[in-house]
Amino acid sequence: MGCNNCPGLHHQINTEPAVFTIADMWEEAKDIRTYVFKGTLNSKPGQFCMLWVPGVNEKPFSIARDYDNELWLTICKVGPFTEQLFQLQKGDKVGIRGAFGHGFSTVKNKKVVLVGGGYGTAPLHFTAYRHMQEGSEVTMIIGARNKDLLIWEKFCKDTGIRTLLATNDGSKGEKGFTTDILLRLLKEEQIDLVQTCGPEKMMKAVAEMCLENKVSCEVSIERYMKCGFGVCGQCVTESGENMCQTGPVVTAEKALSYPDFGLYHRGSEGQKISW
Amino acid sequence: MANLAVEFCGVKFQNPLVLASGILGVTSKGLLRVIDLGAGGITTKSLWLESHPGHKNPTMFGNEHYFMNAVGLSDAGIDKAKEELGDYVKNKTAPLIANIVGAKKKDFGIIAESIDELKPDLIEVNISCPNVEDELGKPFACDRASAAEITKLVKSKTSVPVVVKLSPNVENLVSIAKSVEDAGADGITAINTVGPGMRWNIDLKTPLLANKVGGVSGPAIFPIAVKAVYDIYRAVKIPIIATGGICTGREALEIMMAGGTLCGIGTAVYYSGDKTWQNITQEMNNWLDEQGIKNVTEIIGAFHNK
Fold first, then answer.
1. A229 in contact with B, Cβ within 8 Å
2. Cα separation of B219 and A246, whole Å?
3. Catalytic residue at B129?
């Protein structure tokens, strides 16, 4: 692999999609489904891939698991594309490109807190697994509007991860927000690193909280990723950086320096859309 | 270090590399960052009168030989674009080339008049996109009379120098170049992407681009670009923005010697990312220094003196 004409090649050179067959699938929660494919993208936790349903569209998704020759994408039904995707059955074929972007750091022998909101919790399964492989102690704070929308609770239980739940309506875990729990942990415990993925307003609160308490923090910034490799410019933040390459995972300091972080993102035509 | 500055239609560029249209050009901040990375100027994505969603994904992919895209010119429309680009104009440290496109001929005049208020340094007229044919029919750049008519119309609506971007996908490129020069164009951009081309996935039996076909760019089209620039340079007196597969400093110098004054850089960003600009200017500098050439302007059209 490589291009003699083009020194300093900065990503994989062939970005044609690879074909994957749906090997298995199940519901994680209401309208949230995990698709299992055999194979690997050699990805790191927090990176993303482009999932192509031929004849429909292609969209970016975080990677829920990529080890032991199993690739998982955990996807929420939110619009026309995912509605079509949810029609697919075991044995159906899709195209996948990637993995792209920068993922979460993995640390050795540290205390890590992962904060997930709603289906944004998807990549934190893989992230927790990698930390545990490195001997780090993981606490997972998972939040959702109600108990039917929580994911990875069973995975956490099975792997012995300390799990703290929050629901807006109090139907499971604490009534309130993930940030209420995080703030308490930041005050009471020694934490080395916080990593978060979920609604941007939640992540902004997490980032601010961690900086105030002088704890390292990384956030996963979702923008309109169209090409995945830094050419189309759709996923640009107000720093001018493409989140498909600089991100999606950046430090809290960097995220908070973006004037748009927690406020708005841009749509398919580059128009601003409030969070 | 050689002097890489060039002048194009009276506009000064710190170096000949300009970001080609359709790459990275979504926001002012994104464009300003490209200047910080070392580009001499930037071209906006194609600006439409009204908002235009573009094609569904997949819209692009690449391999070591070439790149294909059918983005379909997505844009939020001229009013939003002016609002967005205002920030670039206020803070700019390098020239702005506003690229415009129209569904109908008369749209080009309306957009030109509107974008004139922003006072871009140049207006580039895109009459040559190969991947909106289903929507718009054959590009206007395929026909001498249409190309000239649009050039005249845009010229009549703005005092900003007008550059017309031509298609390589025609039999009579040189005569089309002449016709836009006769119609008053101040410069020519050559070439737009080649094709359209088509690729399929054999397992899925599905085209790789949602639009089925797309423009081909990247290393494979560089020889086509060099020939187009070479031929046009011999035929017209107006300056040329040479673009099409330029990835290295030596290639930039080659296409300038064929007749380009500026070099449009697009797909190279796929291969080299943020380093693209410095890699190319560094290699140009090294070669010019080795040759004892003080100003890059000395080499423009050098092949024609042979």
1. yes
2. 25
3. yes
